[in-house]
Amino acid sequence: MSSVLAFECRVRAQAPRLLRYRPLSQPATIALAALEIPGRARRFRAQGMSPPTAANPNRPVRVNGMVVRVSEGDPNPDRFKAVCTICPHEQCEVDFMADPTELDPLVLAEIGEVREPVYLCPCHNSTFTMSAGDRLGGAAPRGLYRFRVTAVTNNTVEIGEVEEDVLLFFAD
Prior knowledge:
The chain is of the alpha+beta class. Helices cover 15% and strands 36% of the residues. The chain has a six-stranded antiparallel beta sheet with strand order 1-10-9-4-3-2. It has a four-stranded antiparallel beta sheet with strand order 5-6-7-8. The relative contact order is 0.23.
């Protein structure tokens, strides 16, 4: 890779993200009762289709995700955030660290004190915020890919869209 291309990739990775979402083939649903308390997370598996611009268009793409309630109050979609649990660095599965005091001292030395749960990649210690999957530290070039919570009913939280890049980068 040329040094100019490498520089452009680093700049793009650090620029504010303009997220474009695409609908999932079928919304993923999680029981609302499982997410009553802020900071509680639940895993899910979602499926979308690779976009027409992908190298392999219109192919099923399966992605692991996690949804978390980020604040108390009435159950509306803004109180829940969902992210892809694949680290954008080397595609390792991230863990949800509900108790940030259990983080390795080396991780804390890089990111500083944290008071809310975080996502942690066990491969290279990339850490991400619970509230949006934003990168706090580590080798990852960007935050976690995002899903959009599209509806909350009396019984379920519905995840109906995913960041388009997921469907491009993880297409079979």
